[in-house]
Amino acid sequence: MTSLPADTSALMSAALESILYGFSILMFIGTVWALTYKRRMREVNRPVAVVAVLLLLVSTAHIIMTLIHVENGLVKYRDTWPGGPAAFFTDITEETYVIKHALYISQTVLADGLMIYRCYALWRSIRVIIVPSFLWCAVVVTGIRAVYGTSQATSDPGDVFAIDVEKWIIAFIVLTLTSNLLCSGLLIYRIWNIERRVSKIRASNSTMMPIVRVLVDAAVLYTVMLLGLLICFLAESDGESVLTDIAVPVVSITFYMVIIRITTSCRHHLSTASTSRTTEMEQRNMQQYQTKSLEANISQCTQDDSASTYKVRDEERPSTGIEEI
Questions:
Q1: 0.85 exceeded by pTM
Q2: Which of 28-37, 53-62, 208-217, 289-298 has the lowest mean pLDDT?
């Protein structure tokens, strides 16, 4: 099934990816602000900052390779490639095509690894991330095998659906989709559970539910993209080349969106909690026990279950420490 000519798909994907890449640059600037605003260097969440920079680098490399790929097909090899531009863009063994897909695999592996890091940071339990970790390893293996199979295709290099590497690509998409849904579910459940327990003793009107909403938004956006890509492969549609290219900046955008929105929510939460404390004793106690917080990459706002109570005016209340990134 062919829905778009190959040269048309290449132009469309280059245009859409360029637009989304520009937007991801703006989101990256916002992420840097969220991670560093009113913070010393030692207070910055370094793992998250490193991943943010790596995602930007991979996105930049991918858009460069996309533009080179289009320029090669429409200008450099337009008159010399057998079959013309249409044949050039369907050749999956072409060097820039392989590099682009290797970069997409790298971007996905980084994003999935970060989701597992968020789960561990929030749950503080190795057992919780055992299954996601196995899924992540499977994503790495299938991704590498898909790229290798693409570069070595000989039976019909002009059709990605005619070679046996298609099954590895589909397995890769299904695994990364499953991993993200599982990790998102774990994060959302954990934050919702903390909010449910904290709401019983909280004096202010602040809430952590905006954190749940932003995680749901990010999960839905990423899931829709992966489902679209999976459907294209199952239906053997050339639209897969467009979705594969735009998936790279979309991954970055969802990551940056989560950091910015949750950091803003956490700062509002902290501000509201601060104004609700009316005595110096309460201020000292909150500062003393405000050590464990949720840390979903984006915000270290979590509750320390092992030391969950403190005493104010002879009353025991659960500690709901919230800390910005």
A1: no
A2: 289-298
Q: Which tokens is 198 given?
A: 């904290």
Q: Rounding to the nearest 10 degrees, give the CA dihedral for residues 152, 153, 159, 165.
A: -90
Lowest mean pLDDT among 16-25, 72-81, 109-118, 263-272: 263-272
- Count CB-CB contacts under 10 A for residue 247: 21
Yes or no: say if 263 and 33 are a contact pair by the CB < 8 Å rule: no
Predicted pLDDT of residue 6:
78
Chain segment 113-161, per-residue pLDDT in tens: 989 988 988 888 899 999 999 999 999 999 999 888 887 766 555 556 6
What HEC string does the chain produce?
CCCCCHHHHHHHHHHHHHHHHHHHHHHHHHHHHHHHCCCCHHHCCHHHHHHHHHHHHHHHHHHHHHHHHHHHHHHHCCCCCCCHHHHHHHCCCCHHHHHHHHHHHHHHHHHHHHHHHHHHHHHCCCHHHHHHHHHHHHHHHHHHHHHHHHHCCCCCCCCCCCCCHHHHHHHHHHHHHHHHHHHHHHHHHHHHHHHHHHCCCCCCCCCCHHHHHHHHHHHHHHHHHHHHHHHHHHCCCCHHHHHHHHHHHHHHHHHHHHHHHHHHHHHHHHHHHHHCCCCHHHHHHHHHHCCCCCCCCCCECCCCHHHCEEEECCEEEECCCCECC
**Spatial contact of 158 and 97, defined as CB atoms under 8 Å apart:** no
Interval 235-260 mean pLDDT: 87
pLDDT of residue 316: 39
